[in-house]
Amino acid sequence: MTEDADERLAVAESAAKAGSEVAGRSFKQGIEVETKSEKTDVVTEADRATQRRVIEVIRDEYPEDAIVGEEEDELKEVPDEGDAWVIDPIDGTNNYVRSIPVWTTSVAAVRDGEPIAAVNDCPALGDSFVAGPDGVRRDDESVTVSDRTDPETFTVAPTFWWGFDRRDEYSAMCRELVERFADIRRFGSAQVTLGMVAAGSLEGTVTNVDPNPWDTVAGVHMVRQAGGTVTDLHGDPWRHDSESLVASNGEAHDELVEATKRVE
User: How many whole angstroms separate alpha carbon 235 and alpha carbon 76?
Assistant: First the structure.
């Protein structure tokens, strides 16, 4: 199992790097932007081209595996059985199209619904987060979650975005977090945010919005492999089909859960 996970991690690294190179060529180049379901739900040809490149690298080694991807006609749910790959070609497209460097190409290898290897490559930031059987690396340096224990020193992040008909929930989330913790951030990329929790830059991140697997699976694996805790807003272990997400360094996790529950 470990040997196979190592092999899949190597492919995930190659695929994420190849994809981010494609995305990087169009970054800050005034690329045409399209909208999907909402005005803030945007996509570019770079998203589609990046996903195709990631899949090409994976298919060279694992031609029969299922592919879950945000764009085009790939699967939209993670199968509970067998080997699969979960891809977000550009997580943080709203940042990408505004020339903000907080975006990543995300690739996770999954077996029977559980991640076994994950990579978030962030070329504009100069960072690469890698999670395998032996822990988590950022730029080839081993990292772990923050060791802070006092919530009044925590920096946490509300993540994902609330539609126009749910902005009151975003306001409520911010209120709950600023009343309980030292500071908040919002980066516009769930995968980068989860990587920051895994690397100890943040103590936690939360959402009561239903997350997509391509926005979460890789980063969740990173947080857990780095020693953190990831649940839903009820405190149950997070799965790829959970309807909320609470990730933390494991300290004061219950308080993050309570903050998220109060928004509901």
Answer: 25
Helix ranges (H only) for the chain are 2-26, 45-61, 93-97, 167-180, 190-198, 213-225, 253-263
By residue count, the chain amounts to 264
Helices then strands, counting H and E runs in the chain, come out as 7, 14
**Are the beta carbons of 76 and 82 closer than 8 angstroms?**
no
Give every CB contact of residue 1 below 8 A, 6+ residues apart in sequence: 116
Q: What is the model's pLDDT at position 3?
A: 67
Asked if residues 236 and 253 have their Cβ atoms less than 8 Å apart, the reply is no
Can you read off the two tokens belonging to residue 78?
Answer: 């993670």
**Res 42: pLDDT:** 64
The two tokens of residue 160 are 């994902």
Domains of the chain plus CATH, in order, are: 2-143 (3.30.540.10), 151-263 (3.40.190.80)
What is the DSSP annotation of 79-108? -SSSEEEEEEEEETHHHHHTT-S--EEEEE
Across 126-138, average pLDDT: 95
Q: Which residues pair with 156 in a beta bridge?
A: 184, 204
Asked if the model's pLDDT at residue 44 lies above 70, the reply is yes
**CB-side exposure of 224: number of CA atoms within 13 Å?**
19
For residue 42, the SS3 value is strand
For residue 164, the 8-state DSSP code is G
The CA distance from 201 to 234, in Å, is: 25
Q: How far apart are CA 248 and CA 230, in angstroms?
A: 7
Query: Cβ-count burial of 136 within 10 angstroms (0-12 exposed, 13-18 middle, 19+ buried)?
Result: buried
